[in-house]
Design brief:
By secondary structure, the chain is mostly helical. It contains 2 helices and no strands. The longest helix has 26 residues.
Length: 71
């Protein structure tokens, strides 16, 4: 039996996945009608800024781990 060898992802495939990762939540937010009752007490601008800020911190921590601590 031969071993399964994975080919590296192409640049187009990675870009399509990134677009879907961004478009999925965006389409859900549009579909869910932002004026819905469960979103009235949530400040969406603040929530979005916290999510993106947290993501930036996580990316910086991950890159520091990969560059300095992982062998």
């Amino acid at each position: 039996m031969t071993e399964h060898q994975e080919k590296p992802d192409c640049a187009v495939c990675r870009q399509v996945r990134l677009y879907l990762l961004i478009a999925g939540p965006l389409l859900f937010a549009i579909w869910s009608n932002p004026n819905a009752g469960f979103l009235q007490d949530i400040d969406l601008i603040r929530l979005t800024s916290h999510v993106f800020g947290g993501g930036c911190v996580l990316i910086i921590l991950w890159k520091a781990y990969v560059e300095y601590w992982r062998k």
